[in-house]
Amino acid sequence: MLKFDYLLIQVHNVRVMLRFKKFFPLLIITLISTGIVYLFKPNKTSIIVFPFNVNNNVQLGCKTLLGSTMFPRQNFDKNKADVIDGSLFTNDQTKLALEINGKTLKMITTSSVEIGQTTPVEIPIYRNDDSELIAVDPEPDIILNPGLGTFILNKKTGYAVWTKSKSAFFTYSYPEVQSYYMECR
User: Fold this and answer.
1) Nearest partner of 153 among 73, 74, 96, judged by Cα
2) Residue 48 maps to a domain
3) pLDDT for the residue numbered 62
4) What global pTM score does this model have?
5) Among 66, 67, 74, 68, which residue's Cα sits nearest to residue 168?
6) How many whole angstroms from its chain centre is CA 8?
């Protein structure tokens, strides 16, 4: 009886070893791929998630990362624009305070506050869904040199673009544009 039990144990051990040999390469491949993924995983700082739920009655602050302006240089002799000038502002200090209030985006710059303005501009919100907020300002309240302003916020990243376009500059009859790439929190 003892030899028969010993034989059964040996047969069982052989079956276990055969199963182990089948799954051993799979185990090695899994361990190697897990190690590779761990070695090349992105840093936690490289994945930026916008930390706020940007819905009604939310206040945000935006700071400029890069600003630009484009405008024509007029040739008065030929009465046309010969050259289009542009400038990048890498150290632009423009900052915005925003408040989403229903279908209205209230916006005020720090420059406006510094000169004594306390009432924010109210811009109609064109789209406000899970991925973006778009506000368009036709500037009906500006009597002298009105234009079009847009504010587009990517809600997944917290980055925004604010533009101000005019069909004519104060002294020129050519269009000009200012744009700001901003980080909002």
Assistant:
1) 96
2) no
3) 93
4) 0.66
5) 74
6) 67
